[in-house]
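Lab notebook: predicted structure, single chain.

Context: the supervisor wants predicted structures on file for every construct in the current expression panel, including those that have not yet been purified. This is the next one on the list. No modifications to the sequence; it matches the entry in the shared construct table.
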Amino acid sequence: MNWLKSNMPNILSASRLVLIIPFVFALAHDNYLWLAIVTAIIVVSDYLDGYLARRLGAVSDTGKVLDPLADKICTAVAALAMVQFRDFPVWLLGALVARDIIILLVGLVILKSKRVVPVSNLIGRVTMGIMTACFVIYLFDFRPLKSPSAYLTLIMMIVSLLSYGRNGIRTFARHPV
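Prediction complete. Output recorded below exactly as produced.
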């Protein structure tokens, strides 16, 4: 029981990597019921993994890496599938992938050079919420909201990238070699 309790947050994070497969399948086959169910499970698991890690005292360096990595892989695969099946803007997919690669690379540099695991911040979580809303708008074809949600998502991705950059600079300043 202790093993499950201490690993539940990481299991939830890893489950998102598995759930992206039925997500893409449901999307490709216009199965709106399964799309709604799988999307809801992915979103809830993303919330629960962090909540449970804190609540159960199971915060780990593995989880600090696995959770955002699972988020980035799932959002990139979902966006790529939506480009194919839901007229999601290719430019937004490009911006999303570029932003996530930059954040991952800077995070790896910080981890390797400073031995500090960077964590998400409030702006990053708000951005993820807005991005999730944008995805839902495209998934279920809420046409009047598509362009505004795409541009808002882009703006928030830029703001969050700048915020993570500032945090990275602060981390380097606080943890000299």
